[in-house]
Amino acid sequence: MKKLKVGIIGFGTVGTGVFKVLQNYKEITVKKIAVKNLNKKRNIENFDEKLLTNNAFEIANDPEIDVIIEVAGGVNPTFDILKTAINNGKHIVTANKELLAKKGSELFQIAKEKNVVILYEAAVAGGIPIIMPVKTILCANKISKIAAILNGTTNYILTKMHEQNLSYETALKQAQELGYAETDPTGDVEGFDAAYKISILSTISFNKKVSIDKIYREGITKITAQDIKSAAELGYRIKLIAMGQVLENGKIDVRVHPMLVAKKHLLAKVNNATNSIMLTGYPVGDLILTGPGAGSEPTASSVVGDLLVLASELEYSNAPLPQSICHHDEIADQIEIGETFNEYYISINASNNPGAIGIIGTICGKNNINISTIMQKGVKDDNTAEIVVITEKSKESDVQNALKELLQSDSIKNIDNLLRVMN
Ligand SMILES: NC(=O)c1ccc[n+]([C@@H]2O[C@H](COP(=O)([O-])OP(=O)(O)OC[C@H]3O[C@@H](n4cnc5c(N)ncnc54)[C@H](OP(=O)(O)O)[C@@H]3O)[C@@H](O)[C@H]2O)c1
């Protein structure tokens, strides 16, 4: 194999992991590493500080560098750096899901014109191989559905809320203390990170560009200890699910929101920071891949894997790998959340009078919603009761209309939560 020269942009959790793993490959030389702060102490044995630069464009413009590994994150200035590198004929390996979700189409278009490739196994579910399998060995399939746990931080918080009966706030604090959640956890807990990942995964799975702007997204910040408890009593676990499916009419339904997942479902058994992807395709059927969705070494596994595939291919040809070209030609016709059909969990705070359950039943019936379970959770000091309803499959817009109508009734004090259900 000819010697490959790489430049690494970013030397944090993932970058240092990649650098360490690359020490095992004599045929690969790391020529330069870009960081933000040259004064930061780098705890790596025998590390030559002369490799560092605080000008990433130096790497993007270096004629000797064949491949850029981008593990800095964010859109600015990363997009401009990668655009420059691609225009200079360099191949890209990246872990940056935000950049791909927001600017992927543009980057892939320039890469196509320049006959270079962008590989991004690490951008979705860290150490779990999913991008390359979908593009290579699963290419004989028509993939119709993905349901996945793609964010370790939220899965860790929900697991602790369930196991230790914690509030969301306490579980988040614990996760921050243990390094599972960032000081500003917004990207994870509000579902942005999972939305970036499902936009990338559903685009390559359904062969249509899924727009990040049209993905319905809801995080886990409104989940209460009571929701977790009620869900458990009903035989469910609450998980942040990223899902994508092709409907019978060809439209695409992609969203991220918490769901009650039946205990027997494999995704309900995925705990702590682990990620899991369930994929349904023809002819393969149902597949499930589970493993570490983040972390220095698991993510380095995917980054270096991409790099080695590229290195071996470049030995034989300078043409891009066919499986690494991303199809963005056809735009997905994505549906709104109101058009989706789901089973629902509705937690209602109602006056403790005999008519409340009847009112809920009547209003649901009027809005085409069949109730499969209704449960009253005791009476509070203010003489209100918590009523939990599980519905049969219903249209989201009908459910939203029913909730509005319920709130107009004197007997209904509040809708505490609405979650979708996966059996
Ligand atoms: N962490 C994970 O487990 C994981 C898993 C999958 C994917 N990813 C993705 O991988 C990427 C990196 O994540 P990370 O956790 O490794 O981040 P990180 O620990 O915060 O490291 C970011 C690195 O990028 C450098 N950097 C920031 N801005 C830069 C700029 N303008 N020019 C040059 N270098 C710059 C920083 O420099 P300084 O060191 O000087 O601050 C730092 O070394 C992100 O896109 C993330 O979404 C991460």
Q: What is the CATH domain class of the largest domain?
A: Alpha Beta
Helix content: 25-40%
- As for the number of domains, it is 3
Q: Do you know the CATH topology of the largest domain?
A: Dihydrodipicolinate Reductase, domain 2
What is the tally of beta strands?
A: 17
* N→C terminal distance: 50 Å
Radius of gyration: 24 Å
Uncertain parts: none
List SSEs in N-to-C order: EHEEHEHEHEHEHHHHEHEEEEHEHEEEHE
| Secondary structural class | alpha/beta
Total helices: the number is: 13
Bound molecules: NADP nicotinamide-adenine-dinucleotide phosphate
Query: What's the overall average pLDDT, rounded?
Result: 95
What is the CATH architecture annotation of the largest domain? 2-Layer Sandwich
Strand content: 25-35%
For this structure, what is the CATH homologous superfamily of the largest domain? Dihydrodipicolinate Reductase, domain 2
Principal-axes shape call: elongated
Largest sheet: 11 strands, mixed
How would you explain this protein's 3D organization?
- By secondary structure, the protein is of the alpha/beta class.
- Helix content is 34%, strand content 27%.
- α4 packs parallel to α9 and α12 runs antiparallel to α13.
- The protein is elongated.
- Bound molecules: NADP nicotinamide-adenine-dinucleotide phosphate.
- NADP nicotinamide-adenine-dinucleotide phosphate (NAP) binds next to α1.
